[in-house]
Amino acid sequence: MPLRGGPLGFTLAKLISASGSTVVPASDIPSGWQDVLRALTQRPPAWAGLNWDQPAIMAILNVTPDSFSDGGRFATLMAAVEAGLTMARAGADILDVGGESTRPGSMPTSPEIEQSRVIPVIRALAQAGVRVSVDTRNASTMELALHAGAVIVNDISGLSHDPDAVGVVARRGARIVLMHMRGDPMTMNSLASYKNVTVEVATELALRVETVCRMGVEAHSIVIDPGIGFAKTMDHNLELLKSLFLLCNLPHPVLVGVSRKSFIGKITGIASPSERVSGSVTAALHALRQGASILRVHDVNETIQAVRMQKALT
Question: What element of type H or E holds 256?
Fold first, then answer.
């Protein structure tokens, strides 16, 4: 059976219920599981102009002085816009513009400061014909970014931080990335406790999707993100990546962001985030093999080269 319409596929399925689990040939999945089977096998509808005929690359463009990897590099409008256009020319499908650092322990940035950083960049990139996403958890920033030309909202809080955020996304018909996180950047590390991290992340994401859809967000506008590194330990991150395919039970494309994160540094012994390119690309390719549709990355050229080689070889 095709996974999400291909090119990956599966021949066996584990049916998990309250009474236990059993493995069956894909051709023998019982009729009571057909709704789940449809979510697993059908290609999701087009999203922000992406048709899922190949993995999408979301390039990270942080216009902050304190991001964990590239803080301060693109502090001026000219530098940020040129960096974004360079990544677009390299093949990035989406530019994700953020003006607030959300690394563990980071202090919140006011919406006004965030907007002063991101809105001019978003406007310039959108006018240049680039598909732009705004990385924010603040409703007022979402509103201004969408007015400036952004078409996607990428919210690490899953539209839970700001009570007005769901209304903005629903009213504007924006495409939305709902990420899994517990707490906020200051508290999330204390909430990294799971019995089965992948099952719990999938369950909590499903509940969040249900909630925002009840509040007016269209289901077809949603992409989900397991939130690697957000309220997760290194072991949780590894377990999530190993069993990422479980998220394909939800009828939404999956975005994965592992680029340069600290768990890669712990495993590889590389202290500097900018030198974690090989580890990041390896983890990203693994995510694709587990059913991810979008990769959120710093290193566009290297990731696209690796994705193209993997496609040719497989």
Answer: strand 255-256
Per-residue pLDDT, 76? 84
Q: Which DSSP state fits 164? A: T
pLDDT at 69: 52
pLDDT one-digit tens code per residue, 48-101: 999 998 999 999 999 987 555 555 566 788 989 999 999 999 999 999 999 998
**pLDDT in the model for residue 63:** 92
At 16, the amino acid letter reads I
- Half-sphere exposure for 261 (CA within 13 Å, toward CB): 24
C-beta pairs of 74-82 under 8 Å, 24+ apart in sequence = 77/120, 77/121, 77/124, 80/121, 81/121, 81/124, 81/125, 81/128
Tokens linked to 101: 């650092």
Question: Which residues are identified as catalytic?
Answer: 261, 296
- Chain-centroid distance of CA 190 in Å reads 22
CB atoms within 10 A of CB 81: 23
CB 288 within 8 A of CB 309: no
- Residue pair 3/291 in contact by the 8 Å Cβ criterion: yes
12: which 2 tokens? 């066996």
pLDDT for 50 equals 97
Three-class DSSP category at 31: helix
Backbone angles phi, psi at 144, to 5 degrees: -65, -40
Quick: pLDDT tens for 115-171.
999 999 999 999 999 999 999 999 999 999 999 999 999 999 999 999 999 999 999
Q: HSE (CB half, 13 Å, CA atoms) of 205?
A: 30
- Tell me which DSSP letter residue 176 carries: E
Give the domains, in start order, of the chain with CATH numbers: 1-43 (no CATH), 52-313 (3.20.20.20)
Helices (H) and strands (E) in the chain, counts: 10, 10
